[in-house]
Amino acid sequence: MNILWIFAHPDQDSLNSALRDEGLAPLTEAGHSHRVSDLYAMGWKPTLDRGDLDHDDPAGIGRASGHAYDRGTLSEDITAEQEKLDWADAVVFQFPLWWYAPPAILKGWIDRVFVKGYAYGVTDPDHPGRTLRYGEGVLSGKRALVLTSIGGPEPAFGPRGINGQLDQVLFPLLHGTFWYTGMSVLPPVAVYGANRLDDQQYRAAADTIRRHVTAIGETGPIPYRSQNGGDYDEELVLRPALAPDHSGLAVHSTRQPGTDEAGPARSEPTPSELTPSEFASSGLRVG
Predict the structure, then answer these.
(1) Nearest to 190, CA basis, from 217, 163, 224
(2) What kind and span of H or E run contains 166?
(3) The pTM is what?
(4) Which of 139, 184, 222, 262 has a Cα-to-Cα distance from 255 of 20 to 30 A?
(5) Is 131 within the bounds of a domain?
(6) Please, how many CA atoms are within 13 Å of residue 142, restricted to the half-sphere of its CB?
(7) Range of the domain at 116
(8) What are the CA-CA distances from residue 217 to residues 31, 91, 96, 133 (Å)?
(9) Which string of DSSP letters, residue by residue, matches 20-31?
(10) Cα distances (angstroms) measured from residue 281 to each of 5, 25, 80, 149, 271
(11) DSSP summary character for residue 222
């Protein structure tokens, strides 16, 4: 597979950077090709504005971005990322969870790269007046995997945790962005308690990252409901007969609310590239 790794952390000596390297290392051995977009290192411009588009286009930003895409006049940094995305079979999005969301620079990458006509806004030939989205989008066939670090403990992000279940915390990204554009969305992978990892916990986190990344082509996606699969009425409301005793975000998946989606099977632990003593003396910062 061709894997594009979108990395959004400002520090090269952070826990996230170390885990990125842990995940990248086995990809070639597993037969995958990969490219990395390190957004902070690239100096990625995080805001979509008229400078990215045709300055004299009187349309609103959404339509103007579509016009610029159609005319081939988007800024070069945007088209370079779109070319990487075209190349990729799967995309890893790695970031620390800040205020229950990705860093602004990653949101800006999506705002600028996922423009109308490229990632959304393409007419659905089978449903006049609608566009391809929610399972039938333009990026259909690609896989999306989120790797995130979280300062809080895992139970607080469980079904009854105060922070909310992780796949629901990330619902705007997983469902509203990736599934909307047609990508198959894998269950997110989190490193909890990221500000307090000891050596053993780091090694466990590194093993988890490696297992999920190397299994990116086989892991079952979150079974979100497709817009045009018959589950929604003409107003795009879930039909009453489906999950009748539930409401909220969980009903947009066919799994039972409150249950966990299975990820790749656990393999026997493998040693981290860093031994405990190396990690202790490495100066790596967590987060």
Answers:
(1) 163
(2) helix 166-169
(3) 0.85
(4) 139
(5) yes
(6) 26
(7) 2-282
(8) 11, 11, 24, 22
(9) HHHHHHHHHHTT
(10) 28, 21, 38, 21, 17
(11) P
The residue type of 105 is I
CATH of the domain at 121: 3.40.50.360
Instruction: Calculate the CA 8 to chain-centre distance.
Output: 11
> Coil, strand, or helix at residue 245?
coil
Q: How far apart are CA 7 and CA 21, in angstroms?
A: 11
Q: Residue 287: inside a domain, yes or no? A: no
Looking at this protein, which amino acid is placed at residue 142?
K
pLDDT by residue, tens only, the chain of 287 residues: 999 999 999 988 899 989 999 999 999 888 899 999 999 999 999 998 877 777 666 667 778 888 888 888 889 999 999 999 999 999 999 999 999 999 999 999 999 999 999 999 888 888 777 788 999 888 999 999 999 999 999 999 988 999 999 999 999 999 999 999 999 999 999 999 888 888 899 999 999 999 999 999 999 999 999 988 889 898 899 999 998 888 899 899 987 654 444 333 333 333 333 433 443 444 444 44
Is 153 within the bounds of a domain? Answer: yes
DSSP-assigned letter for residue 178: I
* The pLDDT of residue 275: 39
Backbone φ, ψ for residue 54 (5° rounding): -80, 120
- Give, as one character, the DSSP assignment of residue 132: S
The CA-atom distances, in angstroms, between 11 and each of 41, 46, 69, 201 are: 9, 17, 33, 21
